[in-house]
Amino acid sequence: MPRPTGALTGNIQATEALGGGNDETFTYDPVGSRLLRDGEVTQSVFDAANRLTEDETFLYAYDLNGNLETKTDKVTSALTSYTYDAEDRLIQIDFPDLTTATYRYDGLGRRIEKNVNGVITRYIYDREEILLEYDGTNTLLARYTHGPGIDEPLVMERDLDASGTFEASEVFFYHADGLVSITELTDSTGAVARTYAYDAYGQIAVQAS
Fold first, then answer.
1. Which of 81, 89, 123, 148 is the most exposed, having the fewest neighbouring CB atoms within 10 Å of its CB?
2. How far is CA 136 from CA 22, 45, 107, 123, in A?
3. Between vectors from CA 172 to CA 167 and to CA 173, what angle results, nearest 5°?
4. pTM of this prediction?
5. How far apart are CA 105 and CA 111, in angstroms?
């Protein structure tokens, strides 16, 4: 991904390429805080540690270790809160709709379990790659095949009908762009099952199926 460049004596402008041939242009202050996006004021506010504390939609607050602690909707005051363990790993999110998600980790720091309001998903790894997903009763939900590269998923098989087997219609293939960002999932017939587009910072901006 392109990085902002320029002397730290004034505002910096950088143009970032998006998928589909679109560009986003940002202007930064000398410490790297984003001021403008495509020529428009971003309404972003940063604290003395250069952490985002406010944008167009939310207010953000951080704990003493710099972890995001709360996100508050500026219109509705709906609050999302985040809890971390002693190693600064995210262990709980409390959402405004009363949904609670908790996370568990193994000794290598890999996330091995997600529990969303009692719906449990467990993960089995090969080094850093997720190979298998199980539910709370240890029923196999999905399995993944990876290539030799770092973060290179190739195939996902997901038991969508809970039959206990992976049928041809439940096999999906990953397609990546030149930045190794996943842009499509196709099924066993080659039909596009899901598409992804990213903003200039690599965050998913559009997800369609």
1. 148
2. 43, 42, 20, 11
3. 140
4. 0.75
5. 4
Residues lower than pLDDT 70 in the chain = 1-42, 200-201, 205
CA gap 116, 103 in Å, rounded: 9
Residue type, 155: V
Q: pLDDT digit string (tens) for 97-136?
A: 999 999 999 999 999 999 999 999 999 999 999 999 999 9
pLDDT at 33: 58
CA distance 71 to 53: 9
Q: Which amino acid is at 191?
A: A
- With tokens 């953000």, the residue in question is 60
CB 172 within 8 A of CB 187: yes
Neighbours of 21 (CB within 10 A): 6
Handedness of CA 168, 193, 181, 92 (dihedral sign): negative
